[in-house]
Amino acid sequence: MRILLVEDEEKVSRFVVRGLAAEGFAVDAAADGKAGLELGTTYDYDLIVLDLMLPGLSGTEVLRQIRRSNHHVPILMLTARDAVSDKVEHLEAGADDYLTKPFAFAELMARVKALLRRGSVERPSVLRIADLSLDRLSQQVKRAGRRIELTAKEYALLEYLMANAGRVLSRTMIIDHVWDQSFDGATNIVDVYVRHLRSKVDDGHETKLIRTVRGVGYKISDETD
Amino acid sequence: MNTRSIRFRLTVWYAVLLAGLLALFCASVYIGLNQYLKLTLRDSLAKEARQIGETLLVNISVSGEDYVDDEIKEHLAPEINGTFIRITRSDGSKLYESGPPRDSSFDPANVSATRADINQESSRVERMEGGSGLLIATVPFTLPDGTRFVIETGALLNQSESVLHGLLLTFAVGLPVFVAIAIAGGYFLMKRALLPVGEITRTAEQITSRRLSERLPVAATGDELEALSVALNKMIARIEHSFRHINRFTADASHELRTPLTVLRGELEAIARRPKLDEDVRETVGSALEETERLSKIVESLLSISRLDAGEALSTPERFDLAELAASTAEQMRLLADDKRVTLQCDVRGRAEIDGDPGRLKQVVVNLLDNAIKYTSNGGKVSLTVSTTNGNAVLEVSDTGIGIPAESIPHVFGRFYRVDKARSRQMGGTGLGLSIVKAICTAHGGSVSAESIEGQGSRFTVELPLANNGRDHEPN
C-alpha cells in the first residue's frame, strides 16, 4: 500500500511518515502543493493525505485538480480549521474524509484504514479476543463461555474497542464514535464507562483485556506488553 | 400613539409655541385696540370740551349763563347722544350739568364731584352702575378776565367695549381652530419627514452579525437623514471590517496553535508506541500527552467561543424538542451520576419546541449536568427540569453540591474563571465549559443565569425563545 502525504509542516510530516511506515505503508511526502499535485497525478497511490493549508498551491486547489484528472484515489484532508462550512466545502470538492488538527495518531490510522478498506467491507458478525466474544447479530457478549450482561452504551463501547482490537483509541475517538461530539465537555464519561465495562469483562479473569494507555486512551488486547 | 416619539413631542412643542405666540399676538392686538379706542374717544371729548370753552364760555359775560345752557342743549344734546357734560366754576358750583341720558345708561348724579383747582387737562374712567365705564375728559378753561371754569365731557365706553368684546370672541374661537389646524398639519408633515427614519430602523434591525454586508438605504435628499444613513453605513462598514479581522485572526490563531500541538502530540505518541519503554518514561510521556490533550481542548473551546460570538458556529437552525433532547442527554449521563452515588432526577413535562442547533444545545445540557455532578458529593441530588413560560423554553439544572460563593456568581461564565482554583483544575476541564454554555445560549437569542447558596447547592437556568410558527427565528 502506497500513501502520499502532502504536508508543509516538516515536523508533522516527519511523525506521520514514521507512524505510517511503522504500520507497514510505503509513504511519499511532498512539502508543498505543487510537488504534491505532481506526485499525486503521476503515480497511482492507494491513498492521499492532504493538508489544507499549503504554500503556493492550496490544499483545496490540489484536491480539485487531482479530482479533475479523474482519480478515484481516496483523499483524507487534514485541516487546522474546523468551521462546519469548511468541512462541507471540502467533502463536496471531493475529499473522502477530514481530520482536524491536532489529531491523535490512532485516529489518523483508523481513518486511513477505513478509507483503504472501503469497497471491501468485511464486517465479521462475531468479534473475538482471547476468550471474549461479541456476537453482533444477537448482541451477546461471552467471556470464557459465560454470558455478560451489558447496557447499550457498554455494548457499543466494547464493540468499538473489539472492532479496533490491538489499536489504542483516544477518548475523543471514543466519544465521537459511541456518544457524539456534544459530550466532549463531559470530563470523564469515557473513563467511568470503561471502568464499568472493565469490571464486567475483566473481573475474576487472570488476563486483563481492556487496557489503559496513559495519555493516549484505551485498547483491548490479549498481547502482553 | 407613542407619546415619547419625536413626532409626537415635536408636534406638542410646536403647538404649545404656536398657541403661546398666537395668544401673545391676540393680547397685543386687544390691548392696542383698547388703548387706541380710548385715546380717540378722549381726544374727541377733550376737543368738545375746549370747543365749549372757546365758543360758549368766552361770551358768558355778554350772553349770560342761560345762553350756555341753551346752546349746549341745542347743539350738543347730551341727553339724546348719551353723553355727559358738566361745567364747574372755580368755587366748585356747577354752571351746567347734563341730565340723565334718554336710555338712562348712566346717572350723572353718580359722577364724582369736580375738583375745582385742576389746571391741567386730564381724563378718567368712572364705573357706572350698569357696569360700563364712563370716560371723562377734564379741561380747565380760563377767560381773558381771569374767571376759571372746569369743563368735563364724558361718553360711555360701551361702544368701544363691544368692539373689543367682538374681537375677543373672534380670538377665542379662532385661536384654538388655528392651533388645531397647525397640530394636524404639523403631525402630518412630521410623519412624512420621519418616514425614512422608520425605514432606516427596519433595515438596521435586519443587519445582524451574519448580514453585515448589507447597508442602509440612502436617499440622496441632502438632508440630515441622508447624513445619518451615510454615517451609520460607515459604522457598519467598520464593524464588518473588524468582524472580518477577528475571524481572520481566529483562523490564523487556530492554525498557528494547532500545528505545534499536532507535532507535540504526534511526537509524544510516537514515543508512547515504542514497545520497550521504562515505566517512568511511559508515565512522563503519558502525563505530557494528557496536558497536550487539555491544551488542544482549550484551543478548540476558545475558537468555538470566538466563532459563536461572531455568530458563525451554528449549523442551519432546525426545529426540535428541547425537553426530549434534555431527557435523552440526562439518560446518557446517568452512569456518571450513579458512579458518584448522586441521584439524577429528570423532570420534563410537555414539549418545548425551539429552532436551533441541537448539537450545540446538547453540549449546553452536557456541560451543565457534568458540572452539577462533578461538584455534588455522594448522596447528593442533581435535577434537570424543562418547562415553558411566556414564549421561552426554560431549562434548569440544580444540585445539592458545594455551591458558589456569592462574590463569584457574576464571574462564573467568564473565560477561565475558576471558583476554587486548586480543586477545579484537579477535576480536569478547561475552565471554559460555562463560557461555552453562555456563548451557545446567546447565539440562540437566549440567556443563562446562575444562582447559588454556598454549601447548599447551585441552580443554572437557561432560557431560550420557543419556536414561533409564523415568523422564522434567526439565531445570530
For the termini of chain A, the CA-CA separation is 27 Å
* Proportion of strand residues of chain A: 15-25%
Q: Strand tally of chain B, please?
A: 12
Principal-axis shape of chain A: elongated
Radius of gyration of chain A: 20 Å
Greatest contact pair? Answer: A-B, 47 and 57 residues
Can you write the helix and strand succession of chain B as a string? HHHHEEEEEHHHEHHEEHEEHHEE
Number of strand elements of chain A:
12
Oligomeric state of the chains present here: heterodimer
Number of helices of chain B: 12
User: What radius of gyration of chain B results from the CA coordinates?
Assistant: 49 Å
Strand order of the largest sheet of chain A: 2-1-3-4-5
Task: State the strand order across the main sheet of chain B.
Answer: 2-1-5-4-3
Largest sheet entry of chain B: 5 strands, antiparallel
Helix content of chain B: 40-55%
Which parts of chain A are unreliable, with pLDDT below 50 for 5 consecutive residues or more?
none
Distance between the termini of chain B: 32 Å
In round numbers, the mean pLDDT of chain A is 86
